[in-house]
Amino acid sequence: MAPPFSLPRDGGGSVSLADYAGRKLVLFFYPRADTPGCTREAIDFTRLDSAFADAGAVVLGISADTVKAQESFRNKHQLSVPLISDEQHEMLEAYGAWGEKSMYGRTFMGIIRTTVLIGADGRIARIWRNVRVDGHADEVLAAVRGM
User: Fold this and answer.
1) Could you tell me the sign of the dihedral formed by the alpha carbons of 102, 107, 110, 114, in that order?
2) Catalytic site residue 38?
3) Which of 49, 59, 70, 110 is a Cys-bridge partner for 10, taking CB atoms 3.0 to 4.6 Å apart?
């Protein structure tokens, strides 16, 4: 079963797993708002937002950025996908998207680019870890359509 969550989102209010009961849900975890890879990924999911809706799925983006940073990211790139703020890393850890990373020979804790597909039954159907951005949103859409 998918771990429950309830966190603040861009535009105010909060979002929880229970809000999407009976629907397919795509959660894409990205390292940081308004960085090149994360921007491309969010734009790709936004581009396919209506196709996901037609397939009966909702897409949510999650990072540890503040709600204010998420709103600025959404507005700057005209994103239609709701963006969730997990500053305490609770959801990131529950879904395995927080862990050890390395760059330039240095290891540190951070967000591992991950996508989780949850079926209408509330069970995790598929997990993509260490996602490569190019073509990823299309691949996830194909998986949603195949459910």
Assistant:
1) positive
2) yes
3) 70
Q: For residue 37, how many C-alpha atoms fall within 13 Å in the half-sphere facing its CB?
A: 14
Question: Could you tell me the two tokens for 128?
Answer: 């993509």
Between CA 135 and CA 79 the distance in angstroms is 18
The two structure tokens encoding residue 140:
């996830």
Per the residue annotation, which of 2, 33, 38, 118 is the catalytic one? Answer: 38
* Sign of the dihedral through C-alpha 30, 51, 80, 60: negative
Residue 127 is inside which H or E element, if any? strand 124-128
- Give residue limits of the domains in the chain: 33-146
Does pTM surpass 0.85?
Answer: yes
What gap in Å lies between CA 110 and CA 97, rounded to an integer? 8
| Residue range 2-48, pLDDT digits in tens | 999 999 999 999 999 999 999 999 999 999 999 999 999 999 999 99
Tell me, which fold does domain 33-146 have in CATH?
Answer: Glutaredoxin (3.40.30)
Read off the pLDDT of residues 93-118 as tens digits, 9 standing for 90 and up: 999 999 998 889 899 999 999 999 99
